[in-house]
Amino acid sequence: MSSTVQELNRTGKGEGQPVGVALLGFGTVGAEVFRLLTEHADDYTHRIGGPVEVRGIAVSDLAKQRPGVPEELLTDDARALIARDDVDLVVEVIGGIDYPRELVLDALNAGKSVVTANKALVAAHADGLAEAADAAGVDLYYEAAVAAAIPVVGMLRRSLAGDHIQRISGIVNGTTNFILDAMESTGATYDDALAEATRLGYAEADPTADVEGHDAASKAAIMASLGFYTRVNFEDVYCEGISNVTSEDIAAANQAGYTIKLLAICERLTREDGTEAVNARVHPTLVPKEHPLATVSESYNAIFVEAEAAGSLMFYGNGAGGYPTASAVVGDIVGASRNIVYGGRAPEDNTYAKLPIADAGEALTCYHIDMQVDERTGVLAAISSEFAKQGVSLRTVRQEGSEEDARLIVVTHTARESALREIVNTLTSLDVVKEVNSVLRLDS
Ligand code: HSE
Predict the structure, then answer these.
(1) Which atom of ligand 1 is nearest to the CA of 176?
(2) Pocket perturbation via mutation, ligand 1, pick of 118, 146, 202, 299 by most ligand atoms within 8 A of CB
(3) pLDDT number for residue 269
(4) What is the biggest distance separating any 2 CA atoms in the chain, rounded to whole angstroms?
(5) Residue 428's CATH number
(6) Number of domains, the chain
């Protein structure tokens, strides 16, 4: 990168100067970004202080029909497009990790700001990308990476920058919320609900990323990093998906006044020695029906933030889909373009707090344990003594079924995940416990 480019990044191109954009990818999101940039060009010029001009669109298949897109804009050489002198800003909406990472690094290293919607990329490589952006003095924006147009990244980076966030819990995957909601409200089976979510276009191409919680874990990593000023990567997030949640679990939760949601939970926790650590996890969670997150139905997303001064805040809306994602991408294009025109930026992925990442076992939670037990005297005493040995107290115990086939549902008070896991291990080996049907966590 030349010193002229660095100087320009500091001072800006000047009011009225155009911002040249390279669009990488022209799928549902890319096409909608292009439509918005074209149809609302005048508004953006006013909002930015200069026009946004799309210099080129990198695609993998040049032969594909793309009505309304000038042919001369299309190229299959993304690297050459990024390198053009008249490109100031690169917009990555390709998806995947390795190839977009190379392109994004090319752009940043060449002193060009980047807007990406790629949560997997950011959750896996945020450190390297942020370093490259800071070294070049350019912006790396990724509002669309978490819950599309719901303003989560901007809220954490800017709106709540004056506060001290304690906890962020959210429904950040529409597919799994749709599936769990359909299972609860219509009695649909897991497979039927997943097929419907795929038909409606909510699920990723490979729904494993949705149903096993990986998509939500990427978003949890991003939210925890921003909320706690500490780098949290995808692999730091404990992750359990919804593929083992059964209709029986949903019915049992319902009966006890809960609804099951796949939550991404990011929180500060205080260790026994009084120091703080960060915990991020994704798992099916029993949420009390009166909690605002319990009311989030279909494929909607919601993020619930608890902060010292602001108190509790909830952000709700469509967290996926071409249009909402494009809205967030174009919002970032406007923000990054303002800096390109007027100059000035500051490192936004600040990880100064460097809190240690807590092990999943350190989390504080409650367990809802559903098991088949023998129906004879002393069974309850044998089971409850295992909880007592670990210092875990029981909140409720419910028994159902016949003499031969008794079902016991135990809900604990808050305890360390590690102690609760140990109890479950012991329960499975007790003679009186025929089977542990399910173990779910409860958000109290
Ligand atoms: N498949 C994701 C969802 C889309 O269901 O929410 C956005 O990450």
Answers:
(1) 5
(2) 202
(3) 95
(4) 83
(5) 3.30.70.260
(6) 3
